[in-house]
Amino acid sequence: MIDMRVRLPDEFRTVSDGEKNSFYERYNEVFGIFENGKRTLQDLMTEMDNSNVETAVIHAEYEFGEAASHLNKMVAQIVEKHTDRFYGFGTVDLTNLNPLSLVEQAEEIADLKLIGINLQPVFFDVDPLDHRLYPLYATAAKLGLIVSFHTGIHFSLKSSIIKNNPLYIDQIAVDFPKLKIIACHAGWPWIPEMVAVARRHKNVYLEFGGIDPKYIGYPGSGWETMFSLMNNLLSDQILFGTDWPVISMKKAIQSWEHLGLNKETLNQLFFENASQLIGKEKGG
Length: 284
Hints:
By secondary structure, the protein is α/β, with parallel strands linked by helices. Helices cover 39% and strands 13% of the residues. It has ten helices and eight strands. An eight-stranded parallel β-sheet has the order 1-2-3-4-5-6-7-8, with helices on both faces. The radius of gyration is 17 Å and the shape is globular.
């Protein structure tokens, strides 16, 4: 199995507990993410082993005042040391939308042998369609870097969720048809919009980190449009991700396996789609 999105373990981050608690106050109320204290790389690897997850993609999620370059180097350090287990996504500084600086940061991410860029514009009140970001998207497409966007709901009370509407991604996919795009969290509560975007663009993938998959199969949950297409029209665009440590791998896997999806769809979700996206061969 491939977990397409886990967080950089706490031991590699420089954010203070005060900043983290302030940002994640509602996250902790909803998910209880502080209950087991700070997570280490060993915790991540142990959970992978216990859940039969062969590979994980570590994302440098830029949410606080940490230096994006530091986060990128930490992810690259882990990937270089554990090439058999990890791939990595870097990030960029969204407090400075200087186009040339963003291009240079994308080039540095590629130089670090990371495979993508994690973007969470909403936390900086940045419009994903801001023209200053377009050189970044163009550079990512040219260098073969995947770009992941936070879509749908978030639980920080410091910014609105409105710019997480998947329709922002639609325009980016129109303008950059060769850019591989991942919609993290898969866009709820805008599920019809997210499905429409994915159906229009085969280069848009849906990742479900931070969600207990059992809700995707609940009638009345809002996921019905997407769930009804997972066994057919969307089967090659869905990706298993946990947003570890927000959701445990074992819990997420068990929930997916009890949703009633067919065996081939689960294989695509857990491995095939991700392996094609990141260029990984089974067992390699």
